[in-house]
From TrEMBL:
The lineage of its organism: Bacteria, Pseudomonadati, Pseudomonadota, Alphaproteobacteria, Rhodospirillales. It comes from Azospirillum brasilense. Residues 1-15 have a biased composition (Basic and acidic residues). This is protein-glutamate O-methyltransferase. PROSITE patterns: AA_TRNA_LIGASE_II, CHEB, CHER, PAC. Keywords: Chemotaxis, Coiled coil, Hydrolase, Methyltransferase, S-adenosyl-L-methionine, Transferase.
Length: 1020
């Protein structure tokens, strides 16, 4: 923020409510600017910025704007440059006002809505709209910021800015410009916006006056505009009774609630902030507002927050921070040991951007030097809320406009819509609440940074604060001020390192005490422990200073401390009898203040002393023009300041001592005088020649500078245009970066999930690339393959295994070659079994990029299978288990025994692995065709789930005997399906049935007597 022109505070000028008309001689100044007579009454102009989702918000906004609101509205959107805009027709249905598309040079009139045309940028000058072509090759732009900034510059306090739904941060900087010009800033409630990026970015600045839904914003804007156009502020020059002064009462109310005294803030700043809060409270009288503050402490806190101007950003004034990084930080670190702490004080840190910026500069300097130092940055501010925000180290993504991409990557962590300051930078900074006007300062500070705080203080308070900084600094410490701030009366106490960027180095030597003027002029409402001890210490310090001054006047001869230019830096002792101020321009040159007979000797002595570096002494020098002082003894001692390397000399002029300790120098007055004159004449001639040459060079340089200045002006315009283009491109890049960041976070979460899944499972898994090189494995795999983490990147063929699987590597190669999975049950040492599966590793495009080998411990399953086999073997029936495809998976001992007794071919046809459905097929016309067809059909119906069980009786005679069997099949429940088939010998039962029916010896190998289908319920 720019400094105020008015350097008065309420301590000098109390202000009361203005009578109407004002008193004679009282200057009445409109804080909103005068309006020429004879011209139509001014109207406020509302700039509205919207992007994605903005159409709905604009419709709701204008649905609630009356036709005679006496405001002008300019709508700026992000429009496609190649499509015709339909906004005129769309918005005309939602307002009684005239809706037009903006044209170049069009005058802005009240009760009219102006819309930005496609492929154009819009600005305003002297109340007229100006259209410029948008560069099609320039990428993304920021049209809302461009118009808002122009609106603030042209209309000042009559500018109103509104940010509606949209993505990104366009409009944020424009609203800050409007606020800086005294205008009104508003934003749509993010909860009601379809896209909350733009409103949230604006609200995050802390400078938005109103946050409401789109339908409630018009009433707020109309009410504020009415106050703006109807109010003037008086600035009387006559002091009044402070007890009846409403401004003094307002300041007192703030002090009583918050403990902060604003009586030494500049008057214009106070009036402007109070005026804004009066608008919000709906009051026109300052006395009424003072009464409101006495009743309502919440409003007092709101006013206090309004007074705290927290406008800051990272690396504000980039040139100043570059100068700090080049001229100060390397000097501080060069002579420090790693254990010697570097102490920095950032006063008025607001929300911490400046403190973190300095911390980043120190981190970069340490990296360049290849050394680590203990850097501690004490960042203080009067506002506790700002300190809490700063301590979090969390900032919106809009900081990318001020922080380079490299610094964002190295010193920040992207998280959602914010950036977090990295842990290493946050460790360097300590935040604390601190009142510079009341609390004691830090000490032994190497660098004090206080930027753009002093400009809001009056001159006495500025002197107090600067004296406090001088006390806080170490010898040769550095001071970093804002570009609009100066040292004032303390200029002689500091060496200027960079006048443009306000970098100074303290020249103080020895102990420096806090001056008495630093004692607060207004007591704080809350007393702190130790105040009496502090006051007593200050009184003792003042007494000691007075005693030292008395001793020097009584016992120290008149002595002068001068620099190389022979200007007096300090006077010790009583020198009034020998020093005399000559008429004309004031000067501190020692040769002009001393008697003429002494000044010649002193000049020669100083020249010799500075040239040789040796002490010079001379006694009984006659004094011609000082009454009562016939002669003095002279002693000149040169020395060099250790920190800065500057040369000084101490001149001792003792009128009481006829002779000094040192032997007199061989000084011949006439000879040395002549030598001095000749030297001066030669120097004069030389300087004359140099001056003439310098004048000629300056004339030439001036012409070159004028030409260069014209080129720079043209270049500056191009750079400004380029900067706008880069900002637009940056916004697009930020969006893409946010998408990438979200994708990276998503992939990180997926990776973490997979890692945890692989660690938590008992399934050993090894991932191989196309060269059989190990890419990844799970801990469980180490039980089957002798593998350790360092084996990642090695070929699996180099490792030994604990499994009995001779064809392991061959099967892997086969899967590589044929892309067909392989599954084996193999034993492991220690009577354990595992299921080994080798599958191809498929990419998203279904291409084979490797192999996945899994090891599942199936020892328990094998044991269960063994127990099941034992149970089946104990049954007398012939039992087989088939899968859902009809293949035999298990048979019992009776089944095998029957096969062996009936010959090897029968066992081969009915053993595990054989498809039983194929076995039950018979060729047409062959014996037993009907039985085979019935069995095959029944089994298929069971496997398909049509029936639960199937039974059939059939003869199976041999050459030796007649036999009958009953086959029973039952479906297995479960996902895998299948069936259990059993054959029961029913020969005895059949024989009994035959005897009972009187039938003897049936024909061998005839059709079955009965075939029962439970589903049909009829004999087959």
């Amino acid at each position: 923020m720019e400094p105020e022109d008015n350097d008065h505070s309420i301590a000098d000028h109390p202000v009361a409510d203005a009578p109407s008309p004002p008193d004679e001689g009282e200057e009445t100044v409109s804080v909103y600017g005068p309006y020429p007579e004879g011209r139509e009454r001014a109207c406020c102009i509302v700039g509205i910025g919207a992007s994605a989702g903005g159409l709905e918000a604009l419709q709701r906004f204008f649905d609630n704007v009356p036709g005679e609101s006496d405001l002008a509205y300019v709508v700026v959107q992000h429009l496609s440059p190649v499509h015709k805009s339909l906004m005129v027709d769309l918005l005309a249905k939602h307002t009684a006002m005239s809706v037009v598309q903006a044209a170049d040079g069009m005058a802005v009139e009240r009760n009219t809505v102006y819309l930005l045309p496609p492929a154009k940028h819009l600005s305003i000058e002297d109340g007229r709209l100006i259209l410029t072509a948008k560069d099609a090759a320039g990428g993304m732009s920021l049209p809302i910021d461009i118009f808002f900034t122009a609106l603030a510059k042209d209309q000042g306090p009559r500018a109103l800015g509104v940010v509606l739904s949209g993505t990104g941060s366009d409009g944020t900087r424009g609203l800050l410009a409007i606020k800086s010009a005294g205008g009104f800033a508003a934003a749509q409630d993010p909860e009601s916006a379809q896209f909350d990026g733009m409103p949230r970015s604006a609200i995050a600045t802390g400078q938005v006056d109103a946050v409401k839904t789109a339908d409630k914003l018009p009433a707020t804007l109309i009410e504020h505009a009415g106050r703006v156009l109807s109010r003037n502020l008086p600035v009387p020059a006559k002091p009044q009774d402070r007890e009846n002064d409403p401004l003094a009462q307002i300041v007192a109310a703030i002090r009583s609630v918050t403990g902060v005294d604003f009586s030494h803030y500049k008057l214009a700043t106070l009036l402007r902030r109070i005026e804004r809060r009066m608008h919000t409270a709906g009051l026109d009288s300052m006395s009424d507002y003072a009464a409101l503050l006495r009743r309502n402490s919440a409003e007092t806190v709101s006013l206090y927050k309004e007074m705290l101007i927290g406008v800051t950003r990272f690396f504000r004034d980039e040139g100043a921070f570059s100068s700090l990084a080049d001229k100060v930080i390397p000097t501080l670190l060069a002579k420090r040991s790693p254990t010697d702490m570097v102490r920095v004080w950032v006063c008025g840190c607001a929300t911490g951007e400046e403190a973190y910026s300095i911390a980043i500069l120190f981190a970069e300097a340490q990296e360049r030097m290849g050394r680590s130092f203990d850097v501690k940055i004490f960042a203080t501010d009067i506002d506790q809320d700002s300190i809490e925000i700063a301590s979090l180290g969390e900032y919106p993504r809009s900081i990318a406009e001020d922080v380079s991409h490299e610094r964002l990557t190295r010193y920040f962590i992207a998280r959602g819509d914010h950036y977090l300051v990295s842990r290493d930078i946050r460790r360097m900074v300590v935040f604390a609440a601190h009142n510079i006007m009341r609390d004691p300062p830090f000490t032994k500070i190497d660098l004090v940074s206080c930027r753009n705080l002093l400009i809001y203080m009056d001159s006495p308070l500025q002197r107090k604060v600067l004296s406090l900084f001088q006390y806080a600094l170490r010898q040769s410490g550095f001071l970093f001020l804002g570009t609009s701030e100066t040292l004032g009366d303390l200029s002689a106490e500091f060496h200027v390192l960079d006048s443009r960027n306000k970098l100074f180095q303290s020249l103080r030597t020895g102990t420096h005490r806090l001056p008495r003027l630093l004692v607060p002029t207004v007591a704080a409402p809350v007393h702190r422990h130790g105040d009496e001890a502090m006051s007593q210490a200050q009184e003792e310090g003042a007494a000691i200073d007075e005693a030292i001054s008395t001793l020097m006047r009584a016992y120290v001869p008149p002595s002068l401390l001068v620099n190389e230019q022979m200007n007096i830096m300090h006077v010790f002792g009583e020198a009034s009898s020998i020093l005399k101020v000559p008429p004309g321009e004031a000067t501190l040159n020692a040769l002009k203040l001393l008697p003429s007979s002494v000044s010649m000797v002193v000049g020669t002595a100083l020249t010799r002393a500075f040239r040789s570096g040796e002490e010079f002494a001379l006694s009984n020098i006659p004094v011609k023009d000082r009454e009562g002082l016939p002669a003095v003894s002279l002693r000149v001692k040169p020395f060099v300041a250790r920190k800065t390397g500057r040369r000084f000399a101490l001149i001792v002029l003792d009128p009481s001592a006829p002779a000094l300790a040192l032997p007199d120098s061989d000084f011949d007055f006439d000879t040395d005088t002549a030598e001095r004159i000749r030297g001066l004449e030669q120097e004069l001639v030389s300087r004359g020649e140099n001056l003439q040459a310098t004048i000629e060079e300056l004339e030439t340089a001036n012409e070159e500078l004028q030409a260069t200045n014209e080129e720079l002006l043209a270049s500056n315009e191009e750079l400004q245009s380029t900067n706008e283009e880069l900002q637009s491109v940056n916004e697009e890049l930020y969006s893409v970066n946010a998408e990438y960041q979200a994708k990276v976070e998503e992939l990180t979460e997926v990776t973490n999930d997979l890692d945890n899944l692989l660690r938590s499972t008992e399934i050993g898994t090894v991932f191989l690339d196309s060269g059989m090189v190990i890419r990844r494995f799970t801990p469980a795999a180490a039980r089957f393959i002798n593998i350790i983490p360092r084996d990642v990147g090695r070929s699996i063929s180099h490792l030994s295994t604990n499994i009995d699987y001779p064809d392991f590597l061959k099967d892997i190669e086969r899967v590589f070659r044929d892309h067909t999975p392989v599954e084996r049950h193999v034993p492991v040492r220690g009577d354990r079994w595992i299921q080994t599966r080798i599958l191809p590793y498929l990419t998203e495009k279904n291409q084979v990029a490797g192999v996945v080998v899994t090891f599942v411990d199936v020892t328990a399953a094998k044991a269960a299978e063994h127990r099941l086999q034992t149970v089946l073997d104990s049954l007398p029936e012939h039992v087989a288990v088939i899968d859902s495809d009809g293949a035999i998976t298990m048979v019992n001992h009776a089944w095998r025994n029957f096969g062996e007794k009936n010959g090897a071919p029968a066992l081969d046809r009915c053993g595990p692995g054989t498809n039983y459905l194929d076995v039950c097929n018979a060729e047409e016309g062959t014996e037993g065709e009907a039985i085979a067809r019935a069995v095959n059909d029944g089994l298929r119906r069971i496997l398909s789930g049509d029936i639960e069980q199937f039974t059939i009786e059939y003869p199976c005679h041999s050459d030796k005997e007649e036999r009958w069997f009953m086959m029973h099949a039952c479906r297995l429940a479960g996902l895998s399906g299948g069936a259990v088939v059993s054959h029961i010998d029913i020969t005895n039962r059949k024989r009994m049935e035959l005897r009972a029916s009187g039938r003897r010896n049936g024909q061998k190998k005839s059709a079955p007597l009965t075939a029962k289908d439970p589903a049909a319920g009829e004999p087959a």
